[in-house]
Each structure stands twice: as C-alpha cells, then as structure tokens.
C-alpha cells in the first residue's frame, strides 16, 4: 500500500493537516508523554520491591540498547507513513500487519482506563494536601488512602482527569498538546529540581540512596521479578511500544533529526526517574518508612509520602502540594499521548471530527476504567496486563516490523532526515539483532513470573 503523504511531506488523504509548531515542541510533547506517573510512582515502587541497584542497572541497560532503537523505529513508522497507529503498520508492512494496529489501539485504551484512575488519586491527594492538610500518622494515612483509592471519590476523580485529558486532546496537536507541554515540562523540571535540593538536606538522604537505589546484590540481576520490573518500567516509562510516539511523529517534519530527538526523550525520562527516586527515598528513609515501602504496592507512595512529610509541619505540607502538583502535570502530559492513539486512528480511518472522536472515546474509556476505580486489585491486574505484557509485545512487534519487515523504510526515512549512516546502521543492527531476542527473553520471563505471582 502506498504512503499517503503528499510531496510537501505533510500527511495527505485521511489525515488532518496538523503539525508541530517546532522541533522543540515535538520533543517536549514526546518527553511529556514519557515522563509521567511511571517515573514518579512506578520507578520508586519497582526499585523498592527488592531489586535496588540491580534493578536500576538492568533498567538503564534495557532503556539504552532495547528501548532506544524501538523508539526510533516508532518515530520512523509515524513520520514515514504519515498515518495514525491503526493504519501505519499496514502502510509499512502490508495487510498482514493489520492486527498490530488493533493491538496498539487496545493497549492505549486499556492503559488510559486505569492511568486516569491513578491520575485521579494524584489530583485528589493534591486537593487534600491543599485544603485539609496531611494525615497525622500512618493509620490516618492508610484510612485516607483507602477512602480515596476506590469507590465514589476515585470514580469522580477518574472522570475529571479523563475529561481534562479530553479537553487538551480536543484542542488539537498544536493548540492543545504542544501548548500544554511547552509550559508543563519546564515547570515540572523546575519543581523537581527544587524538591531534589530539599531532599538532599534531609537527615536520611544518604541512607535513602544507599538502601534503595545503590544497594547491590548481584543475585538480583537474574531474579525474574527484578527482570520483569526492569522491562516493564523501561517500556512503560519511555512509553514506547503501542504507538503513542508514533501518533505524535505522524505530525513531524521530514527533516527533523529523529535519533537525536529520541535520545533527548530517553535522556529526560531517565533523568526524571532517577531524580524522582532521589526525592522519594530520602523521605522514606528519613521518616523510617522503609518497612511500608518494601512490601510495596501501587498505593504505597500515596501513603508513605504524605505521612513522612506530615511530621515536618507546614513546610512538609508545602512540599507535598508541590510534589502532587508535579505529579499531576507529569500525568496529564502522558495521558494526552495515550488518548491521541485511538483519537488519531479513528480520525485517520473514518474521517471523523477530532472533537467528536475525543468525547466518544472519553466516554468509552471512562466506562472501561470504572472497575479499576472501584477496586485497586483490578487496577493492579490491568497494569500488569496492558502496561506490562501487552506493551512489551507491542514493542517486540515494532522492532520486527521495522527491523525485518520494512528495513528500507527505516533507512530511507532517517537518511532523508539527514542522519549519518554511521548512526543509522548501528541503530538498525540493534533493532534487528538486539531488541527482538532481548524483548522475547524479557517477555517470557515476565509472563512466567506474572503467572506465578498470580497463582501463588
Ligand atoms: N510514560 C508514561 C509514564 O511514565 C505513561 C505513558 C504515556 C505510556 N504514553 C505511554 C505508557 C505509552 C506506555 C505506552 O507514566
């Protein structure tokens, strides 16, 4: 099937004539998609499940040698086809790749359905810290979290978060997503830097880094749970494998340097993950919350952070407000990328209007998210399936499609964008020979470990 791009490099038939205001706008939006709750809650909670330094090392390795080439491939697939995630695989690889487009749609919808619930908890915690203050002790924090994490409060916060995401995506690429990222990302970095400096002054700072991030146990390198955590965290945090960046890249200029942009996104995302760990772990160590965190679940930090900060009085409350603000900004710049996957796909496939498509999808996703908003156990299962196994499978398919199915497209697009062969060829090599076997191994270990954790 031919590409539907016109000679000007803009998407043609079936695609709205939208594009980014600038290369920086795209990079900020893509970084906004990558930096999210995954970096703040996910990184901390997975690192503290026992992996420590081994988890961090595996995570960095996977990000660099496995995810980076896949991210480049994903950007190439979007830009070179000019199509949304549903049709792009067909355009690049022919009809037999059609199921991949559906996998991307399902994964994005599935992830957003529970991601909006997590966003709701974040927004609710922000509001609580602002208006009511922090919980007096651990018991109060647990009671408070139980009250907001499921039931009526969670449902309302989930719906509001989805609606807010819908407002941004309905405003379009440039007027909505790019505008949000342009002010959101710099603000996020500023807040994080401030919190990082503050955390350094805590009495337990060194202890926090040592216990959680730097504790070295080589046996953990081969521990299946650590491996699953590292793979899941890498793919989820970069946000590659289900077409979110593909959707963004379809609005990208022919000439922009994709490998450099991908490296920026990966760099910013990893920096935020590590920086966030350097904020949360000192808090945990300083206030003696280690026990709470090591039996970690998705809710742990929502309980541990406010409890720790409460003992600092008013200044702790300010820090809590800033932290939840930061988390909410990170979350919404991510949720818009998830919603853009089905939105651009339906616009592309059916020629519907953006506004109509967005609100149709918001209603559907709101319903799909209800079980997660009512029961945290469902949320954890959704995360393990859509945010783990399905996502990693999508990444594997992406590597196979561009590495083996359509390598000439990969080379031609990057060549046209001005990337030197000395950079492009090693990337293609990694995409063919490193990513598929590594992802397959990671996937097998993850599925086995997941099944075991569910049955035991
Ligand atoms: N990366 C985001 C986070 O860390 C979440 C996210 C946005 C995502 N887009 C994605 C995850 C695409 C997987 C796939 O919170």
Give an overview in words.
This protein is mostly helical and 456 residues long. It has one domain (23-455): Up-down Bundle (Amino acid/polyamine transporter I). The protein is 80% helix and 0% strand. It contains 18 helices and no strands. It has helices at 23-34, 37-81, 88-93, 98-131, 138-149, 152-170, 173-200, 205-214, 224-238, 244-249, 258-286, 290-294, 300-310, 314-350, 354-374, 376-405, 407-416, 421-455. Helix 2 packs across helix 18 (421-455), helix 4 crosses helix 6 (152-170) and helix 5 (138-149) crosses helix 13. The longest helix has 45 residues, at 37-81. The protein is globular, with a radius of gyration of 21 Å. It binds tryptophan.
CATH superfamily: Amino acid/polyamine transporter I
Shape: globular
Alpha-carbon distance between the two ends: 48 Å
The helix content is: over 70%
SSE map:
Elements: H1 23-34, H2 37-81, H3 88-93, H4 98-131, H5 138-149, H6 152-170, H7 173-200, H8 205-214, H9 224-238, H10 244-249, H11 258-286, H12 290-294, H13 300-310, H14 314-350, H15 354-374, H16 376-405, H17 407-416, H18 421-455
Helix pairs in contact: 1-7, 1-11, 1-14, 2-8, 2-9, 2-11, 2-16, 2-17, 2-18, 4-6, 4-14, 4-15, 4-16, 5-13, 6-7, 6-14, 6-15, 7-11, 7-14, 8-11, 9-16, 9-18, 11-13, 13-14, 14-15, 15-16, 16-17, 16-18, 17-18
């Amino acid at each position: 099937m031919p590409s539907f791009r016109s000679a000007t490099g803009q998407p043609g038939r079936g695609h709205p004539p939208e594009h980014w205001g600038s290369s920086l706008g795209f990079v900020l939006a893509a970084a906004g998609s990558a930096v999210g709750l995954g970096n703040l809650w996910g990184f901390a909670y997975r690192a503290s499940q026992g992996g420590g330094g081994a988890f961090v090392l595996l995570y960095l390795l996977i990000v660099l040698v496995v995810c980076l080439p896949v991210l480049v491939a994903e950007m190439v697939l979007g830009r070179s086809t000019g199509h949304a995630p549903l049709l792009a695989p067909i355009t690049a690889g022919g009809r037999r790749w059609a199921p991949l487009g559906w996998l991307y749609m399902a994964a994005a919808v599935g992830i957003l359905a529970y991601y909006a619930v997590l966003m709701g908890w974040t927004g609710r915690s922000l509001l609580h810290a602002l208006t009511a203050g922090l919980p007096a002790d651990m018991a109060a924090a647990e009671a408070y979290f139980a009250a907001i994490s499921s039931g009526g409060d969670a449902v309302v916060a989930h719906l509001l978060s989805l609606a807010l995401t819908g407002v941004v995506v309905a405003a379009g690429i440039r007027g909505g997503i790019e505008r949000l990222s342009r002010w959101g990302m710099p603000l996020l970095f500023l807040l994080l830097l401030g919190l990082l400096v503050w955390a350094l002054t805590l009495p337990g700072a060194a202890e926090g880094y040592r216990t959680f991030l730097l504790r070295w146990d080589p046996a953990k390198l081969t521990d299946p749970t650590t491996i699953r955590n590292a793979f899941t965290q890498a793919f989820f945090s970069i946000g590659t494998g289900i077409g979110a960046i593909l959707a963004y890249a379809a609005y990208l200029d022919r000439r922009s340097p994709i490998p450099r942009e991908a490296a920026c996104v990966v760099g910013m995302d990893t920096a935020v993950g590590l920086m966030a760990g350097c904020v949360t772990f000192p808090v945990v160590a300083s206030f003696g919350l280690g026990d709470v965190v090591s039996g970690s679940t998705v809710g742990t930090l929502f309980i541990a952070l406010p409890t720790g900060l409460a003992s600092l009085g008013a200044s702790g409350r300010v820090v809590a407000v800033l932290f939840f603000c930061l988390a909410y900004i990170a979350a919404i710049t991510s949720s818009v990328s998830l919603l853009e996957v089905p939105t651009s796909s339906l616009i592309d496939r059916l020629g519907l209007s953006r506004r109509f498509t967005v609100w149709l999808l918001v209603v559907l996703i709101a319903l799909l998210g209800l079980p997660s908003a009512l029961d945290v156990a469902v949320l954890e299962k959704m995360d393990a399936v859509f945010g783990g196994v399905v996502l990693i499978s999508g990444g594997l398919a992406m590597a196979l499609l561009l590495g083996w199915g359509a390598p000439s497209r990969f080379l031609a697009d990057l060549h046209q964008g001005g990337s030197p062969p000395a950079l492009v060829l090693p990337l293609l090599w990694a995409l063919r020979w490193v990513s598929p076997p590594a992802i397959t191994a990671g996937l097998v270990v993850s599925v086995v470990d997941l099944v075991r954790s569910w049955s035991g």
